[in-house]
């Protein structure tokens, strides 16, 4: 009973969401499944858009190195002509005041004024071209561009991570589908053998065998029926696993996927230290955090730019159209240009700049500590999968040997049973042991493949191609 329970558990693969494509995808290899997923999966479209967004932000940051040129056009109509009121008195020079005093009966020292002077007509059209260019920004411009550059690289690592996620899922479900297919075939073969044993037992029982009793005949019927039930469950598990693979490939739920026979997993020749070192070079999570540390350094430089002045160059040209020829729109003022240099320096900002610098430094220390923790966690994950891989390899060797002996044992029991030299339960047990050994071999290979998939995902590169 324990053997049958373990055998039943062996055919239970992970249930997954049933999505596939309306087209029939036949005899797919692992490479074809991955290729299809990389073309159809929507997750990759999201990561591609993230890269485009980062590149657009980089272009925005680079605009600081170019002069800014703008054109302003303004047309206005006022309720009335614009004037300038003059009220008061004009003080006269002493010699002119003395001359006027000789003419007048009383001294004249000033002349009173009370008049309106027209500045320009109510309709006014102005145009101007303005140019500004920052000459010195205290390092802020380079720091912002540096952050944008690293933002592109971070987005590209995120794109790599999305591809690794898709490839990992496809491989997991592909090997799961292959395992389910193998267990279904194993259950079907076992059913055929149990049917043969059942027929042989029936013949011996009906011919009046002294060793085969009715209980033996009923035992074979029961075993065959249980195996048939397990076959139905294996078929259900196989269908679920194939549908899950279609979903991982980005296919529609109505499709059907069939696979080519699975190849034997390749041996791993890399040692643990090499795998950990390569993870530090290729793992996208580690690379993203390393780039974030570098970008945090640029953030400190940007914050420190507040201590320095900003120096810029300015130039403009203008032209005015107005029906009035005088006032502010006389011939000298109708068009012209200006050129100059502007310096802006915050001498005191209430310690805002120092607060920004301290915040940026604290962020840098936080990211550096997170990087150390991530490196340690990644090394532990790789070590775990490495040990799992070694264990699965040894299990494959042991189960391969066990299957060889179990197959020989089953054949000997069948021949001996025909001669009524062994009991029925021994024949049934030999068949169950062989099926269990075969299933254990398939599970060991599946565990090895899962370890390779996890190890490849954590390293961030195909571990068979790591140099």
Question: What's the arrangement of secondary structure elements?
Answer:
Layout: H1 2-10, E1 24-28, H2 30-40, H3 42-62, E2 68-77, E3 82-91, H4 94-103, E4 110-120, E5 123-136, H5 140-206, H6 214-248, E6 256-259, H7 272-282, H8 284-304, E7 310-321, E8 335-344, H9 352-418, H10 424-459
Parallel strand pairs: 1-6
Antiparallel strand pairs: 2-5, 3-4, 5-7, 7-8
Helix pairs in contact: 1-10, 2-5, 3-5, 5-6, 5-8, 5-10, 7-9, 8-9, 9-10
Written overview of the protein:
The chain is built from ten helices and eight strands. The protein has helices at 2-10, 30-40, 42-62, 94-103, 140-206, 214-248, 272-282, 284-304, 352-418, 424-459; strands at 24-28, 68-77, 82-91, 110-120, 123-136, 256-259, 310-321, 335-344. The strands form three sheets. The chain has a four-stranded antiparallel beta sheet, with no helix packed on it. A two-stranded parallel sheet has the order 1-6. It has a two-stranded antiparallel sheet with strand order 3-4. The longest helix has 67 residues, at 140-206. The protein is rod-shaped and about 165 Å long. The relative contact order is 0.15.
State the CATH class.
Mainly Alpha
Number of strands: 8
For the biggest β-sheet, the strand order reads 2-5-7-8
Put simply, the count of helices is: 10
- In round numbers, the mean pLDDT is 87
Structure classification? alpha+beta
First-residue to last-residue Cα separation: 49 Å
Total of domains: 1
Radius of gyration, whole Å: 43 Å
Q: What's the CATH H-level superfamily name? A: Outer membrane efflux proteins (OEP)
Helical coverage, percent range: 55-70%
CATH architecture: Up-down Bundle
The coarse silhouette is rod-shaped
Q: What order do the helices and strands follow?
A: HEHHEEHEEHHEHHEEHH
Strand content: 15-25%
Low-confidence segments? 1-22
